[in-house]
Amino acid sequence: MSQKKVIEEFEVKEMLKKYGIKVPNGMLISNLPETINLDYPLVLKVSDPNILHKSDVGGVALNIKNYDELKIKFNEMKNKFSNSKFLVESMEKSGVEIIIGLIKDKTFGLSIMFGMGGIFTELYKDVSFRLVPIEEFDAREMVEEIKAKKIFEGFRGIRASKDAVISMLLKVSSFGNDHYDEIDQLDLNPVIVRENDAVVVDAKLISIIP
Q1: Same domain, yes or no, for 154 and 205?
Q2: Contact 205, 104 (CB under 8 A)
Q3: Is pLDDT of 1 > 80?
């Protein structure tokens, strides 16, 4: 009987990078090095496969402006999560938040999901689905199907690239197709969409182990 395993966020993002999916610059640490070669402000996260919702347990610190502040935040987290590793990343500039996911269904197989992300995911449930793999016309239809589609058409001056969304949907579909039998669920939320790009800020992967 197969089992399920949660993959650490840093490892998930390293896998996504191989498919040309943009993620923040970051590093995985157990102890704080004397120098951090990343652009401030930074984000500090606990990296533990047993902690799926980091924010709920105080496992995320945002907008860290300098090394002294990082040291304070790191020591606080290290005291709280003494046996864990930590992910340090450059904090991405704001944009429109979306969610892209993969989910395995016993009947239909692996589906890709797209919708509005961040804190609004559960509130609005504005999502569309397709079976993996998808083509470009599928990705375009997925964007057109959600109620908030006008956001990607310049609604009220919002600059969020529809092409960047479509490109990421196709890349996530390729990732899902290549790892079809290994994926139970992939949750990329939020993905920040800006005028010229889209970047995965948070990534969760539940893998199937035969």
Answers
A1: yes
A2: no
A3: no
The pTM of the full predicted model, rounded to 2 decimals, is 0.93
The C-alpha atoms of residue 26 and residue 146 are separated, in whole angstroms, by 32
Burial class (CB in 10 A: 0-12, 13-18, 19+), 145: middle
Instruction: Tell me: do 71 and 161 sit in the same domain.
Output: no
Task: Identify the H or E element spanning 168.
Answer: helix 162-178
204 in the same domain as 106: yes
Domain encompassing residue 192? 94-209
Residues 86 and 99 in one domain: no
If residue 174 lies in a helix (H) or strand (E), which one and from where to where? helix 162-178
* Percentage of the residues of the chain whose pLDDT score is greater than 70: 96
Q: Which residues contact 14 (CB under 8 A, 6 or more apart)?
A: none
4 in a domain, yes or no? no
Residues 6+ positions from 57 with CB-CB distance below 8 Å: 46, 51
Same domain for 110 and 161, yes or no, is yes
**Are 69 and 152 part of one and the same domain?**
no
Residue 1 lies in a domain: no
- Interval 151-202: pLDDT, tens: 888 888 888 999 999 999 999 999 999 999 999 999 999 999 999 999 999 9
For the segment 98-151, what is each residue's pLDDT rounded down to a tens digit? 999 999 998 999 999 999 986 656 656 789 999 999 999 999 999 999 988 898
